[in-house]
Amino acid sequence: MLGDMGSSIFSPSIAPVAPTVTDPVDVLVIDDSEDDRDLYARLLKPGVQVQTVDFASDGEEGLARYHDRPTDCVLLDFNMPGDDGLAVLERLKAIDPHVAVVMMTGEGNENIAVAAMKAGAMDYVVKDRITASVLLRAIVNATEKAALVRKIAAQHEEQVNFIRILVHDVRAPLRGLTGFSDMLAEDLEAGTYEDVPDHLDMIKLSATRLNALVDTLAHYALLDGKMAHEKVDMNDVVTQALDNLRLVIDERNAQVDVAILPCVTGSGPELVQLLQNLIGNGIKYNDRVAPTITLSVKSDGDEQIFVVEDNGIGIPEAKLTAIFRPFERLWSRDVYEGTGLGLAICRKIIERHDGHIWCESEVGSGSRFCFTLPAV
User: How many Å apart are CA 70 and CA 47, to the nearest integer?
Assistant: First the structure.
């Protein structure tokens, strides 16, 4: 559904949940004291919570290392020759506004710690009270805070982009309604009626497009609610999706081949919408006399990998990422009608199921939309 392709976008009605650090993190230590660096090396032995530890002896070296290889967390000493910790923190945030920094201070430097937190540090540790557990807790805390801040910032950016594009898309049918209504009024006032049917048709088309956009947005917004996880037979899901698509399948003389599918954990109605969108795309964006769609699956550990493959027009490689942005269209509505939110809905559904969705395609040879779902 190239005209209905988008990406998972903001959820304005739901506050993001702070992620929990489960994978080992990479740590960068910036400290001019060799003794302190040795101490951190002993306390941060690679294991369950720490993957790697890198060291820099001053701010310039630390900034260069972070620029070349950003890490999950930075332990930053406040007292260093040259730029102090606050100055280095400011420069780190110029490289990465959401860098996870733990400021390392001396006993009695609580005011410095407060200043560091105001400047953007995610936590601080008093060196004289340091232990392995204190240090690890600060690293995890800072990393989780930074991840949450990144998520909020991404949602805000997506919200701004979404609203900008939405306003543009709503204005188009509204301009049609206004423009053709004015033409209709002028014709009626002048007593010329030969163009009235055409004006009425265009008014109806504009209203239909606006209504479709509103309906799609309403459906998209409802996906922000809670989802009931249960055992779902994907054979039943695809049957319902094909029933919903029966008219277009018959009109296009399309063939849909489906393998025997497994059960997954998720929401049946949402998965019906997912397959309906993807199979419908394969038929809609297809210039062959008889579009062919195949749905296959393979197991990969705790996941099931589904593939919806078509023999349609395909997607340029440079657009395989862009197609997942909201309202992204490769063709105008005059070529392929659509709201521009079809794949946004698909991606949100998959993300709500803790899965992933991606596309593989070649122009003229068709597309493969792949997605993962948790196995039962």
Answer: 20
Write out the two tokens for 59: 């701010």
* CATH number for region 25-153: 3.40.50.2300
Domain definitions of the chain by residue range: 25-153, 160-222, 228-374
Pick the closest to residue 362 from 317, 308, 327 (CA basis): 317
CATH topology of domain 228-374: Heat Shock Protein 90 (3.30.565)
Rounded to the nearest angstrom, the gap between the alpha carbon of residue 128 and the centroid of all alpha carbons in its chain is 42
Q: At what angle do helices 342-352 and 268-284 cross, to 10 degrees?
A: 150
| Mean per-residue pLDDT over the chain, rounded | 84
Do the two domains 25-153 and 228-374 of this chain adopt the same fold?
Answer: no
CA gap 51, 25 in Å, rounded = 5
Q: Measuring CA to CA, which residue among 321, 297, 314, 309 is closest to residue 372?
A: 297
The region of weakest confidence among 276-290, 318-332, 359-373 is: 318-332
Residue partners of 91: CB distance under 8 A and separation at least 6: 59, 63, 83
Two tokens, residue 311: 């023999």
- What does the alpha-carbon distance between residue 183 and residue 239 come to, in Å, rounded to a whole number? 47
Report which residue type is found at 100.
A
Contacts of 120 (CB under 8 A, 6+ apart): 89, 90, 93, 99, 101
Which helix or strand (DSSP H or E) is residue 152 part of? helix 132-190
Q: Which of 273, 260, 268, 261 lies closest to 232 in space, CA to CA?
A: 268
Residues 204-210: what's their mean pLDDT? 80
Other Cβ atoms closer than 10 A to 278: 26
How far apart are the C-alpha atoms of 356 and 95, rounded to whole Å?
29
- The three-class DSSP label of residue 333 is coil
